Amino acid sequence: MSDPLLQRPKEQLTAFQRWELNSFDEAEKPGTENIAAEALLASKESAAIQLQNLEKKTYDESYAAGLAAGHAAGMQQAQSEIAKLQTLMSNLQIALTQVDEQLAQSLLDLSLEIAQKMVVGVLHIEPEIILKIISTAISSLPHFNQNAHLILHPTDADLVRRQMGDELAHAGWKIFTDPKIESGGCRVETSHSNIDATNPARWQSIVESIGQDKSWLKTPN
């Protein structure tokens, strides 16, 4: 049996009857709500996927930015360490150069000291060397002066008197002694010139010729 409400025009129905009719029509369309729910679910899933993609993109970009920043920081630190190493190597080279210079100077000082002791030893072993020294001092004078004074250590003076006494006396030279003059050296004094041929003076002349300033080590007579 058909419902009499369905056979009557809607304009002849009361408001309540029209509401019942509409409710009945909607009841006959049970799939509408399911379609809407599925659409809402699909939209939600799509939004979730988009959010997930956005999060991944943001993470990737942040990771890449972090790598770049970390690389830059690492390069800066490496350059700083390289600069420190270069400074260290430069300072080390300077230190090595200074050590070489100090070692060379020490060796030179030692050589001069050994040479000085050898000279002193030779003077004691061969006292006749004083005769050559006197001859050299005399030849350094502008001309052979009369009344010149030859000043020697007492020991050397005795030797010179024996070996050259007559020659010097004939030339008008006089021999004087001075215990302060180290054996092996002498001084010559004239009215016009003075010759310092003492050991310290001759030694100083030698060391100055090689750019050094090492005093003569005075030894006991």
TrEMBL record:
Name the predominant localization: cytoplasm
Compartments where found: Cytoplasm
- Cite the Pfam families for this sequence: FliH
**GO CC, any one term:** bacterial-type flagellum
* Ranges in coiled-coil conformation: 37-102
Its Gene Ontology molecular function terms?
Answer: cytoskeletal motor activity
Q: Where is the Flagellar assembly protein FliH/Type III secretion system HrpE domain?
A: 80-205
Q: Which PANTHER family match?
A: FLAGELLAR ASSEMBLY PROTEIN FLIH, YOP PROTEINS TRANSLOCATION PROTEIN L
Query: Main role?
Result: Needed for flagellar regrowth and assembly.
Family statement drawn from the similarity comment of this UniProt entry? Belongs to the FliH family.
| Protein name (database record) | Flagellar assembly protein FliH
Q: Which organism is it from?
A: Gallionella capsiferriformans (strain ES-2) (Gallionella ferruginea capsiferriformans (strain ES-2))
